[in-house]
Amino acid sequence: RKEVEQDPGPFNVPEGATVAFNCTYSNSASQSFFWYRQDCRKEPKLLMSVYSSGNEDGRFTAQLNRASQYISLLIRDSKLSDSATYLCVVSVTGGGNKLTFGTGTQLKVEL
Amino acid sequence: EAQVTQNPRYLITVTGKKLTVTCSQNMNHEYMSWYRQDPGLGLRQIYYSMNVEVTDKGDVPEGYKVSRKEKRNFPLILESPSPNQTSLYFCASSYRDSYNEQFFGPGTRLTVL
Questions:
Q1: Cβ contact, residue pair B43, A43, below 8 Å
Q2: Tens digit of pLDDT per residue, chain B (113 long)?
Q3: pLDDT tens across A1-12, in order?
Q4: Rounded to an integer, what distance in angstroms lies between the CA atom of residue A78 and that of residue A76?
Q5: Handedness of CA A98, B33, B86, A5 (dihedral sign)
Q6: Which residue of B has its CA nearest to A46?
Q7: Cβ neighbourhood burial of A88 (10 Å; 0-12, 13-18, 19+)
């Protein structure tokens, strides 16, 4: 089983739609969680950190469920510019400061 | 401008010819790391460094070396490249550790023939 698993997609959605991505992680010692965005062939960039209480940044909402070991990302009112690959990232306590990335979920927002 | 730079951006080489990919950051970050990205496998950590002269293996360190003699630089060395090291490589840095936001360089696309 992969340490961090994501549905690769692609998710093709119309502009204005709400779309949700899930990510599961296998190591219960995981401590920090993030969503990164990666445009085609470009470097990943931090979208948002994921906190235990959940957090929101504009149209984006991230949730963490430690009991079930999954993280979610909700995008409301999708824009064409949201088209990208979304990477789930986990850092493990005592894991020597290693970061583990999911393979990413591709989102395509269409007119 | 705060940034992470990598050089070269593109490289085509042959099996066995030693190469170095440089990485430099101007943000005085303590933590630096190298990743490779392959289709279907995502980003995998090769090596990371918590500070000068402190380096540790990531998930896929075989065939790679790194050094951290200065805080700003973290070169990736392939002593004897092989075709299975053909990949897209990213360098990243963060303020202190893996719990902080990672700032990535633009990537180096390496092809080993």
A1: no
A2: 889 999 999 999 999 999 999 999 999 999 999 999 999 898 999 999 999 999 999 989 999 999 999 999 999 999 999 999 999 999 999 998 888 899 999 999 999 99
A3: 778 999 888 999
A4: 6
A5: positive
A6: B101
A7: buried
Q: Is A99 in Cβ contact with B98 (below 8 Å)?
A: yes
Q: Does B42 contact A103 at a Cβ distance shorter than 8 Å?
A: yes
Is B83 strand, coil or helix? helix
Report how far Cα B74 is from the mean position of its chain's Cα atoms.
Answer: 7
Both tokens of B19, joined, read: 């190469």
Largest CA distance in chain B: 37
Tokens 């973290």 correspond to what residue? B74
Torsion-angle region of residue B96: left (phi > 0), alpha (psi -120 to 50) or beta? Answer: alpha
Query: Tokens 């591709």 correspond to what residue?
Result: A106
DSSP string, A37-87: EE-TTS--EEEEEE-TT-EEETTEEEEEETTTTEEEEEE-S--GGG-EEEE
Amino acid letter for position B61 = P
Cα Rg of chain A (Å, integer): 14
